[in-house]
Amino acid sequence: MRSYVIADLPGDGIGPEVIAVARDVIDQAGRRHGFVVHWRPCPLGSEHYLRTGQVLPDDVLENLRKADAILLGAVGSPSVPPGVLERGLLLRLRAELDLYVNLRPSRLRPSLESQHSVMSRGAPGIDLVVVRENTEGLYAGAGGTVHRGTAFETATEESLNTRAGVERCVRYAAALAAGRSGRLTLVHKANVLVHAGDLWLRVAREVAAEQGVELDYAHVDAACLYLVDDPGRFDVIVTDNLFGDIITDLAAALTGGLGLAPSGNINPDRTGPSVFEPVHGSAPDIAGTGKANPAGAVLSSALMLSHLGEHAAAADLESAVDAVLGAGGAPTTRAWADALSAELAKRVAR
Ligand code: IPM
Ligand code: MN
Known about the structure:
Helix content is 43%, strand content 20%. By secondary structure, it is an alpha/beta fold.
């Protein structure tokens, strides 16, 4: 029987609530499709930090490296200053494990089409993938503060864009586009950010020509407008780290909300595990209320299973979410879990 070691890092807020559901549906799908998951719980996050002062201890990181994949819930808490966990855990994992692609599919699922304002204006559906560069740009950590506390205090954040970093990300996106519609859109702000924009444009033109995909370009502000007004023009979008962060929240809002949005932080070279997490974050306002929607975590799990080669199980998770949404969704985390489990039980092993 195929087996996988998966580290689960539930983290903060609603993270543990949605990851518990994701683990159950993965185990259930595994029983039907002939694989077993050995879970390796990893209790990092705000509680661990407040108790020990540690964010991501080196020995824990070394253990995480040994997993086949990492399933992450959410990181961030009002009781910890902003940035400590985000930079120290999430961004450090992205850098240390070289997760240079952040893959964020956004699809207006069939069951939601009728409720959608874009659809009601007669626009075609939304079915796109954002390939967000995940290790560089404004997230690289370059910058600092000088003259702190004086009238001349100066804060800088520098956007790092390396030829190698841009190229490997664009290559991944172009290959993805080649297997879909053959269309790739670069989103940037090349009319203002002329240095980075020029590098991204040159690389995208070269790679698109080499891989035989059609390249389109949109400034990030216009891309937001098109996402709302004419989303059918997009199939695969490739963009830098911060633009990708922003437009994927918009794309999520347009396709049923953050509660449904999945993501994969991918190391395409497979020199280590990739990290899969729902986009929604820790949502401290609803943590503990039992209302968290586990669909984003379950769809992230589907991405993870696909990455591991378990395509049939991944398809089952996707279709189970669609079926539950088609029946009107579920009011609580528990009701979602039961409905997903009942749906999965209907599917036969292939
Ligand atoms: C996301 C989040 C993170 C990001 C934060 C929490 C560091 O917003 O995954 O989209 O900006 O990448
Ligand atoms: Mn974000």
